[in-house]
């Protein structure tokens, strides 16, 4: 799609204007934070995009390109309030993140989740951090699985009674068969003895990250922008191609 010359002139200001780099350190750090949160959902802390050749690192400059496209740069008023447009009228992302919907909690640190719910989204730093969390949420693939209940860290115990099986015990106490087996790996339904004690943690059913979509401009545009700007992918590509030419 052809991009307007006015828009091109706007972003090309970033070639020589260092103000466009103001949030680079924040973006680098927050991309790493989201990756680490993803690690807690079962992923390597540095590499999260699974490809045929292994794992590749998520490029933080993808988010920098999004920032340039979303904000229009430091000459715009939103640069110092909502540079990523999170919280603007019609924006769905803010509500998703505040409520922890769409599986967004696994990609956010507890500190960020609390900040989004309690602090002003007009802080440019929080606006950018929220946008990155939403991007990771939209790029993740989820599955519903039984996982440990983070709200209850207690190691409980249960006494086996006549007629018990692992399945029956799991249903009775609110855990899973796998969780019971973690604490006594040799346990099987035929080995249970009346009177013995089994340890376990409570479990819940929740959304778990099981993979990632392809981190390219077209997929990001579809998943993050949702078609709001038909030229979004082309704009991202244009800005990304400017970065090697930055005069710094």
TrEMBL record:
This is LysM domain-containing protein. It comes from the Bacteria. Transmembrane segments: none annotated. It comes from Zoogloea ramigera. InterPro entries: LysM (IPR018392), LysM_dom_sf (IPR036779). Residues 156-200 form the LysM domain. It holds the Pfam family LysM.
């Amino acid at each position: 799609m052809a991009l307007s010359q006015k828009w091109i002139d706007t972003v090309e200001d970033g070639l020589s204007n260092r103000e466009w780099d103001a949030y680079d350190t924040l973006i680098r750090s927050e991309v790493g934070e989201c990756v680490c949160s993803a690690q807690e959902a079962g992923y390597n802390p540095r590499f999260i995009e699974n490809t045929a050749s292994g794992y590749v690192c998520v490029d933080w400059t993808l988010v920098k390109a999004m920032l340039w496209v979303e904000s229009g740069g430091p000459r715009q008023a939103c640069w110092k309030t909502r540079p990523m447009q999170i919280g603007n009228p019609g924006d769905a992302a803010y509500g998703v993140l505040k409520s922890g919907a769409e599986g967004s909690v696994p990609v956010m640190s507890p500190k960020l989740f609390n900040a989004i719910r309690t602090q002003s989204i007009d802080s440019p730093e929080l606006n950018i951090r929220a946008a990155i969390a939403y991007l990771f949420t939209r790029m993740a693939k989820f599955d519903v699985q039984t996982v440990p209940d983070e709200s209850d860290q207690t190691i409980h115990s249960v006494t086996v009674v006549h007629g018990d099986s692992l399945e029956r015990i799991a249903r009775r106490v609110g855990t899973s068969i796998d969780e019971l087996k973690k604490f006594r790996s040799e346990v099987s339904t035929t080995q249970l003895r009346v009177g013995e004690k089994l340890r376990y943690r409570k479990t819940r059913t929740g959304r778990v990250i099981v993979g990632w979509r392809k981190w390219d401009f077209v997929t990001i545009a579809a998943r993050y922008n949702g078609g709001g700007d038909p030229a979004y992918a082309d704009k991202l590509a244009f800005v990304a191609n400017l970065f090697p030419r930055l005069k710094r």
